[in-house]
Fold this protein.
Amino acid sequence: MSVDENMFDEQFVEATNKLIEIANEMGGKYGDHKMGVAFIYAAARFNAYIAAGSVTSADELAGKREKAVEYFTDRFRQLYDGNLVDYISNFEAYMGEEQAQETAKGTAH
């Protein structure tokens, strides 16, 4: 399944940026690693809600569980890999100054 490029419209980008803004704020408060795991958990919880809302019974949801897990797992893998490729291609621009500051503080991660 390929990523649907049409979903990356203005509303999608705005919502994504807002979620990342919140994640950055909370990461500063609780730590980036904890926030990263919390972000994954929140996405999993919300998407389970979306899957449950697409059916009319627990039995129907149970019947579609494997397909839903496969869909969201594949989607995450594609989007995560695409973002890693982007960071690899733009590492200095994205991380150069920040990485130098973190290393100077002894808190690189």
Notes: The chain has one domain: 5-105. Residues 43 and 49 are 10 Å apart (CA to CA). The two ends are 32 Å apart (CA to CA). Helices lie at 10-30, 32-53, 58-89, 91-105.
